[in-house]
């Protein structure tokens, strides 16, 4: 059992966005080992069909299972929205995603029941957040908006200033008019823009970071299932399917620390 407790967590994303989940795990569960796979060679998942995203997600999960992981974390909102049923059918370890924790956190904090969700085109069009929120709180009203330019802003480090603020106002104006009191960041890139998003919205609007919500639930799960690692300090190994140097450069901004030893792999189609 001790050996299994000290098995790594497996995380995959279509690219670098899932590093916001890695950052939260490192902060709140620093003793846990992590195997991270960024599918940079097939990025982005957002515009792709559900069938293709399910195929890629299963391939990613099988790669991670080769490391004897104890939990699979789907850190991609697009994959979380369309691939969980497929993964659950084939993967034998517990699976956690970023959508359900974010939706639950929004329902817990909203006061007027008006909840906004922003994300990629794929995540928003899937209706996944809307479905879960409405199941949890049937009297709520959910308003959504896809914000595709937020991803390149985050990756290029345009996190504040006139340009990100103008783009944020353009995207968020519609949600402001709905008098939402809670906004879910439905893409793992978006927490990097949290400050400008909060500025544009209103200080009274609660911003829900799905990565933070996921890690809170992950910690409770590991403790409850006696899977909490007892090592002194966890280690993270990074794998990508293309452009390791670009991953390292962008990842350094996401994690606020220099990344090294990025392993380039090939996943068969």
In terms of DSSP E residues, the strand content is: 15-25%
Number of domains: 2
What is the makeup of the main sheet?
Answer: 6 strands, parallel
- Kindly report the average pLDDT value: 93
Uncertain spans = none
Summarize the helix and strand pattern as letters. HEHEHEHHEHEHHEHHEHEHEHE
CATH topology of the largest domain: the name is Rossmann fold
Question: Helical stretch count?
Answer: 13
Label the structural class: alpha/beta
Task: Classify the helix fraction into a percent range.
Answer: 40-55%
Side-by-side strand order of the widest sheet: 4-3-1-2-9-10
Radius of gyration: 18 Å
* CATH class category of the largest domain: Alpha Beta
Q: In CATH terms, what is the architecture of the largest domain?
A: 3-Layer(aba) Sandwich
- Cα(first) to Cα(last) distance is 35 Å
Q: What spatial form do the alpha-carbon principal axes imply?
A: globular
- Per DSSP E runs of 2 or more residues, the count of β-strands stands at 10
Features:
four-stranded parallel beta sheet, 269 residues, single chain, Rossmann fold, six-stranded parallel beta sheet, alpha/beta
Descriptive report:
The structure is a single chain. The chain is of the alpha/beta class. It folds into two domains: 2-97 and 213-264, 3-Layer(aba) Sandwich (Rossmann fold); 99-210, Rossmann fold. It has 13 helices and ten strands. A six-stranded parallel sheet has the order 4-3-1-2-9-10, with helices on both faces. A four-stranded parallel sheet has the order 6-5-7-8, with helices on both faces. Helix 2 (19-28) links the parallel strand 1 and strand 2. Helix 10 packs across helix 11. The longest helix is centred in the first third of the chain and has 16 residues, at 50-65. The protein is globular and about 50 Å long. The two termini are 35 Å apart. The model has no long low-confidence stretch (mean pLDDT 93).
């Amino acid at each position: 059992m001790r050996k299994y407790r000290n098995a790594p967590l497996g995380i995959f994303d279509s690219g670098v966005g899932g590093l916001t989940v890695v950052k939260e795990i490192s902060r709140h569960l620093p003793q846990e080992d992590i195997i991270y796979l960024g599918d940079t060679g097939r990025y982005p998942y957002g515009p792709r069909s559900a069938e293709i995203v399910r195929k890629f997600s299963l391939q990613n999960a099988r790669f991670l299972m080769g490391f004897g992981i104890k939990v699979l974390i789907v850190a991609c909102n697009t994959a979380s929205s369309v691939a969980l049923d497929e993964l659950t059918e084939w993967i034998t370890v517990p699976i956690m995603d970023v959508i359900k924790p974010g939706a639950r956190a929004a329902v817990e904090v909203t006061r007027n029941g008006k909840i906004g969700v922003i994300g990629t085109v794929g995540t928003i069009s899937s209706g996944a957040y809307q479905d879960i929120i409405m199941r949890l709180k049937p009297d709520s009203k959910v308003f959504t908006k896809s914000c595709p330019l937020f991803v390149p802003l985050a990756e290029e480090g345009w996190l504040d200033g006139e340009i990100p603020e103008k783009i944020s106002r353009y995207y968020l104006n519609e949600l402001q008019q709905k008098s939402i009191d809670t906004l879910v960041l439905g893409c793992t890139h978006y927490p990097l823009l949290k400050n400008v998003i909060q500025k544009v919205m209103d200080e009274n609007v609660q911003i829900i970071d799905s990565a933070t919500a996921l890690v809170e639930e992950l910690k409770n799960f590991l403790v409850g299932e006696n899977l909490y690692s007892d090592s002194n300090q966890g280690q993270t190994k990074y794998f990508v399917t293309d452009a390791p140097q670009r991953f390292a450069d962008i990842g350094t901004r996401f994690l606020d620390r220099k990344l090294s030893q990025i392993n380039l792999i090939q996943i068969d189609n």
